[in-house]
Amino acid sequence: MLAEVGFATLIMALAAALYAIVASVYGELRHQEGYVLSGRNAALLVTALLTIATGALWLALVQQEYQIKYVWSVSSPAMPDFYRVTALWGSQSGSLLFWSFLMGVFSAGAIVLNWRSHRRLMPYAIAVMMAVIVFFLGIKIFIENPFERWWIMPDLPRDSQVISASIMPAGALTPDALLLAQSAQGLNPLLRHFGMAIHPPMLYLGFVGFLIPFAFAVAALASGDLSTNWIKASRRWALIAWLFLSLGLILGGRWAYDVLGWGGYWGWDPVENAAFLPWLIGTALLHSIMIQEKRGMLKVWNMFLMVGTFSAIIFGTFATRSGLVESVHSFARSGVGFPMFFFWFLMTLISVALILWRRSRGELRDEHAFTSIFSRESLFVLNNFIFVALALVIFWGSFGAPIVSELFLNTDITLGKDYFMQVTPPLFLALYILMGIAPLSAWSATSLVRLGRSLLVPLLLTLASVGLFAVGGMSTPVALVGYGVVLLAGWIAVYETLRGIIARQKSHPETVLHSLAQLYRRNPRRYGGYMIHLGVTIIGIGIIGSTLFQVETQRTLAVGESLALNGYELHFDQFDGQAISEDGRIMDIATMSLWRDGQKLATLRPRRDFFPQTEGMNSMTIAGAHSTLENDFYVLLVGWEALNASSATFKVYINPLVNLIWWGSFILILGTLLAGWPRDILPERVRQSRPVTLPRGTKGALS
Amino acid sequence: MMRRMVYLLPVLLLLLVWSGAVQAQRVVTDDEVNAIAKTLYCPVCENIPLDACGTAACDDWRYEIRLQLEAGKTEQEIVDDFVRRFGDRVVGTPQDPLLRAVALIVPLVGIVAALGLALYVFTRRTPKVVPAAPAATDKYQSILERDLAG
Known about the structure:
The structure holds two protein chains of two kinds. Chain A is an alpha+beta fold.
């Protein structure tokens, strides 16, 4: 029943989305309000239908309806209920449905919240949003249907009697429920982790969230309303999407660190990079739209960045879901390969053509020109170029070079960590420098002397910090330079916030915390931005520390033996083999104690989980880790004697400062929330009851 | 002199054989194996470094690295051997000079082109004075709204 409900609602959603496109555009072109309203209502209906379809699949997973092929392939009777819920995004067709559902939710949100304020853009924006949803619905209905059921065809030869189809074929029988339950595959072991409950939804929310600003951008191009309206309509949506994308990337890194068993959090894998590319272009966009808002400049560039961000999202989805990452030739073998490629190509082509058309008509002309290389807009443009350059070199390493070499040089190549560690660090360092300096410069023009004066204190603080590191024993020049550059950006963020607090305190008798809160309340974009920069600085410190100073060793120990590493002593206490968990996994667990300076710090239990019922990748290496702010002592069980387990092989990592990455990420998220929190969330009368008066002398700090 | 040489020759030969045997039986640590495996990618799995890959095939390849190290091969010789057998996809940057050049020069050209474009934007665009229409409109709008509110 749930399969039928789900499939029927998908078809109805497709019809409603198509109608919404036609009615919205026709109504707008013919100035017939009735059609526009009808299109809007149809778009809202799409969201409702997608909610029912997604709910049906979720319910099928929870109720263990194994006659549905998707449920059978991603769950099993032994699986805990928690993973039944997360299994919705455990495989391709379910995750595509979840994608569409989130797109529907975002679209409905944009329609409800922006209908009155951006009425002129809405019909075209609805058409764009629905066009993307139509594509994804088409993929689900015709290629990756999550509601297909298992059927037995008794008339066919024995080895092809079991088939899957959405609608019951003539002469088909339903398979035995018990047999289906016994043979159910269960969720991919790598996805049985708490991080996987949050990481994919966050990433999807980030991807899907960028649909809204993209839709407004295309709507502006189509309607001819090329003022800053589309930016006003989409800035907050872009920030929300960026926030979720950042969260998704961070949680993905944490998941890799916990589950993939190689001691790192970022492997420059094409799938990771596919999610990083839109983040890079989206970050450039978030900076450059400020220039258009403030100075009416970079109109063409912003359009390209917006289209580039969403294009990167669809390309990444195509690349990772089509098999392109494995081989340029395998995407043709995947059902979604060609349609996704065609959609990405067509969507990008139409968007770029619209931009060029409007540009050729002189409708995207800037209102001001660059006047100084040190003006804020010039430095933001430079920051944009570096973000885009980073995106290009990462795209080249992940997709460009492997595709070109396979297609034209008839050979497979992999550009791995070596390549990325050669080309990206200089660009990242340049970004950190600009991240620090750009907020100090003024709009329109800044003299070098003024910029130098603003830089003096943070620069001295940076030099003092680096000097302390050197005196403390750090002798690696690369690390000292890296820390210097990263710390400069952090000190500038801290110093500027302190200046704001001091300026407020001069005229307000209040505590420091209250002053700080007032700064965030009065100018959330500026001070939220500084908090984001501080978070990125802390992440940078963590990345430099854990990359340049990671210590690693692999040793085979007998029970009772120890290994010494950098002042730590790791003692192999016990081995418990073949322990069976509730969900059916078989666990081999080593119990180890970690000592330092004669004191026991922790008991670590690195283990290897084996999932006997799962085909393909069916084991998982779970690290035992002792985490402090100073470092992570991270142990992996990589091998053991099969018969008596009297000895086992361990890979041990000391990852200095790695936890700063997670703490810095937390600050980054907090800063983004502050910067993007709607100020007008309070009712009008509440806001008006507290008149805002700027004290004298605080203009510079609060502007 | 010649007689002394005749006595010394077997001693020297023995020393040579002994040192060769010692070198051939050199104990290779897991860390030495992993240091090389880290620079290689699993030839069958996608984008997984050989030191981190958990498949049985990768265990065998790591064992091969150990044997080659024990046989006295250098890191470069071992890497070259893997590239010869499995192609340039087993290394993070290709060993083949043409492929290496293509892989590394293209992004550099991209960066230089982007910087050139940035310079062009800054230097070739003549500053133009545009009437501050939006500002005037904003100002007008704020006055209007104030009047309406008042």
